[in-house]
Amino acid sequence: MIILIIYIAIFAAAFFVVRFGVRKFRQMRDFTSLKTVTFGDESAVRPDRWASVISVVTIFLLWGAFTGSNWVPIHAPGPFVGDAEFTYTLEAPDGARDDAAVLVRVFNVGEDVEPPAIEPGAGFAKNDASSVGAWRSDLILMDKNDEVTRKEGARVVAIDGQPVNPGETVPVAGGKVAVTSKGSLNFTPRPGWQMEPIWLPPPEAVVDRVGEIASEGYQNFTLWEHLYWSLFRVIVGFALGAAVGIPLGYAMGLSDWFRGWFDPIVEFMRPVPPLALIPLVIIWAGIGESGKIILLFLAALWIMTISARAGVSGVAISKVHAAYSLGASKWQLMRHVIMPNSLPEIFTGARVAMGVCWGTVVAAELVAAEKGAGMMIMVASRFQLTDIVIMGIILIGIIGYGIDILMRKAEKWLVPWKGRI
Amino acid sequence: MSTLSIENISMRFDLPNGGHVQALQDVTLELNTGELMSVLGPSGCGKTTLLNILAGFLAPTDGRVILNDHPVTGPDAERGMVFQQGALFEWMSVRDNVSFGPRMAGKREKEWRGTVDHLLDVVGLQDFKDKAVYELSGGMQQRVALARCLANDPDVILMDEPLGALDALTREKMQGLVLKLWKETGKTIILITHSVEEALLLGERLLVMAPRPGRIHKEYRLPFADDGVGKDLREVKKNPAFGDKREEILSMIWDMEEEIMGRTEEAGA
After folding, report:
1. Is B73 an 8 Å CB contact of chain A?
2. pLDDT of B223-268, one tens digit each?
3. Closest-CA distance of chain B to residue A332, Å
4. With an 8 Å Cβ cutoff, are A327 and B79 in contact?
5. B76 and A325 in contact by Cβ < 8 A?
6. A365-402 tens-digit pLDDT
7. Distance from CA of B116 to the nearest CA of A (A)
8. Which residues have C-beta within 8 Å of that of residue A264, sequence separation ≥ 6?
9. Å from A314 to nearest chain B CA?
10. Reduced to 3 states, what is the DSSP secondary structure of residue A27?
């Protein structure tokens, strides 16, 4: 909630700073900037690159600030670390009361800390000492060393002078103390606003992991091998899907019989998410490479079939007529008119298929695999290695984005006329 | 010598609701080699259906088309088409578009290079031959379509409103080009148009068709096409005889349109 409010505040502040501060110094006078009607004219809406940069920087800043990163100068308040002290008032069955102090040493998880030494003090309630890691909580059996124990009817009636009953919580310096239903004390140091590394590690931990896993590997394979295997499966599965799907789509676009025969199959299989096929594929082909490739083949197949079919039906009939009138044979029509004309549709389909395949391979590896990006983050999550999980997610995102950019580049190069007719 | 004869063609097709459409009824026509005939008529008179039958894209329900003593059964390189929107192949350069016919016929480059270069000169696109067709303007694209059709050396050229999508100025220039190509090549040309002026300017013969059912309403023989070759077409339009003919045909088409409107209103009432 706090993070959301900060985020919205940065969004708004950056908007005003850029709009009224920076804009003045970078007036461009191209055609679009001279339009007066921009609200409603989609073509006049161009992404403000300042906003993009600030957006990415903001995410890293927030990430760093709320994880106590060394890379970020400002931090959200961290968890309480140090010695916290509070007193409790013990009431013996005869009504006598005595105060005793509890000293709790709060340390960063991973450090080796001895509980502080403490004098027992006077009275029938004796002072206690304990130690607890930040973000953790500590059950303090305060009556162990007391002269009257809970078994004998003693109970805590106040903490730092504030009266309490079992089940209630009292704020103290450095955290809060709850009286459990059984009467013991539970000290929780103040967690602050930062995330515990086990939930969200700081950015530098993730980057360090990249270096470590790239050189030493994780689960018997290096990072590059994990990514390579995921990519390899996608490319092989997609290539097979395209190799079968495109001719099938052409056949469906050109022949009544093929259209009729495969229509029910394609229309049925198209809405089935490839993820739903994972269990069946595992039953049939196991968790090895062939299972993955069959799954990706199926994921790509229907998309490529449908896009190839759409490519054929998208040929303007006048082009077909023109080719026949110029003396083209059926095969020549296929080769010189239908195939090139369907390329834009096929490329659109290929981009979608590659995206689906990449998502499917990661999901399939999450379920079962010996290597691969999905398997890496799945195993890491079992061991609570959040930094590896986050690193894996970021790399998966970068690769998916990279695939899409490459497909778009290929499209521009191979189908330059797309959108220009 | 008669080359193209259209014998008692009728076209009638069923509709899914059980009714039927009589697109053409008993159309008979003869064209000699080298004649340019323009076809006019209100929408729905079957002009395009007739052209599609001549091209071989549609089979008539009755009658037949004979070209050079053999019946037309399907599309063929002997009958070239020029479409309203060019129907060019975007993935090919201008030169590849123009040489499409000869290449499909399996001719080698040295056989067609001369013809193609000459045609590119004639239509004024020599400097653009390596450009992609989507980079050209509408008028240039239509010139590519004309050159592509001529490169195949067809006996008959069928034009389906070839200049319909062009602006007025480009259209005038292209009309001159069509006349020039017609005279130079001596092709038989059938040209469908919506413009009465264009039909008069280009048509050595002018066929006016009537709708519902599509049929030949009247045929004219006109001098303006021959007059116009190599001249400024605006001079031809100033000729009082041209104006008279234009008024006559316009009022004829208006009458037909009004008759259709009346019939529709009756049906509606």
Report:
1. no
2. 777 777 777 777 777 788 788 888 888 888 888 878 777 766 666 5
3. 7
4. no
5. yes
6. 888 888 888 899 899 888 888 888 999 999 999 999 99
7. 14
8. none
9. 13
10. coil
Q: Is the ipTM of this complex over 0.85?
A: yes
3-state per-residue secondary structure call for chain B: CEEEEEEEEEEEEECCCCCEEEEEEEEEEEEECCCEEEEECCCCCCHHHHHHHHHCCCCCCEEEEEECCEECCCCCCCEEEECCCCCCCCCCEHHHHHCHHHHHCCCCHHHHHHHHHHHHHHCCCHHHCCCEHHHCCHHHHHHHHHHHHHHCCCCEEEEECCCCCCCHHHHHHHHHHHHHHHHHHCCEEEEECCCHHHHHHHCCEEEEEECCCCEEEEEEECCHHHHHCCCCHHHHHHCHHHHHHHHHHHHHHHHHHHHHHHHHHHHHC
Tell me how many degrees the CA angle A176-A181-A187 measures, rounded to the nearest 5: 20
What is the least distance, in Å, from the CA of A38 to any CA of chain B? 29
pLDDT in tens, A195-251: 888 888 888 888 888 888 888 888 888 888 899 999 999 999 999 999 999 999 999
List the domains of chain A with CATH numbers: 2-65 (no CATH), 82-189 (no CATH), 203-414 (1.10.3720.10)
Question: How do strand A162-163 and strand A155-159 relate by DSSP bridges?
Answer: antiparallel
CA quadruple B140, B145, B148, B153: dihedral positive or negative?
negative
Does B104 sit within 8 Å of A336, measured CB to CB?
A: yes
Positive or negative, the CA dihedral B222, B223, B226, B227 is negative
Sheet holding B156-160, edge to edge: B79-82, B156-160, B188-192, B36-40, B205-210, B215-221
Give the span between the Cα atoms of A313 and A305, in whole angstroms. Answer: 12
Asked if the Cβ–Cβ distance from B55 to A321 is below 8 Å, we say: yes
**Nearest residue of B to residue A337 by CA position?**
B89
Give the span between the Cα atoms of A169 and A176, in whole angstroms. 7
pTM: 0.80
Inter-chain CB proximity B152 and A327 less than 8 Å: yes
Q: What are phi and psi of B39, to 5 degrees?
A: -120, 125
Q: Closest chain B residue to A319 measured between Cα atoms?
A: B87
